[in-house]
């Protein structure tokens, strides 16, 4: 009986913690910018503009909290490039 209670408690703790791991699009873009070696000045970006062309390539423009704007190009194959604007 003790093992069942411990197992149930662990599963409930895991399920309650999952929403805390969710990452917003603004956080994901800021992290991408920082991982490419650029300063963003925060964990979130603002003013996200996103478009996709007919071949599946995406262009994302975002403004960091420090005021710097970046363009992120994501190819249909998944290659990511970051450029300051």
Number of helices: 2
Largest sheet: 4 strands, antiparallel
Tell me the structural class.
alpha+beta
Strand order of the largest sheet: 1-2-3-4
Unreliable spans are: none
- The SSE string, one letter per element, is HHEEEE
Question: Which percent range fits the helix content?
Answer: 25-40%
- Give the strand tally: 4
Strand residue percentage: 25-35%
Radius of gyration: 19 Å
| Distance from first to last alpha carbon | 61 Å
Count of the separate structural domains: 1
How much is the average pLDDT?
82
Shape label: globular
A few lines on this structure:
With 85 residues, the chain is an alpha+beta fold.
List the defining traits of the structure above.
85 residues; 4 strands; alpha+beta; 28% strand
Provide an overview of this structure.
The structure is a single chain. With 85 residues, this protein is of the alpha+beta class. It has one domain (24-84). 32% of the residues lie in helices and 28% in strands. It contains two helices and four strands. It has helices at 2-17, 25-35; strands at residues 46-52, 58-63, 69-74, 80-84. A four-stranded antiparallel sheet has the order 1-2-3-4, covered by helices on one side. Strand 2 (58-63) and strand 3 form a beta hairpin. It starts with a helix and ends with a strand. 12% of the residues are buried.
């Amino acid at each position: 009986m003790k093992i069942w209670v411990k197992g149930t408690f662990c599963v409930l703790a895991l399920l309650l913690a999952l929403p805390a791991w969710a990452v917003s699009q603004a956080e994901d873009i800021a992290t991408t910018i920082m991982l490419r070696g650029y300063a963003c000045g925060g964990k979130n970006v603002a003013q996200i503009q996103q478009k996709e062309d007919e071949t599946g390539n995406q262009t994302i423009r975002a403004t960091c909290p420090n005021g710097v704007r970046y363009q992120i190009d994501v190819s249909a194959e998944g290659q990511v490039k970051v450029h300051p604007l």
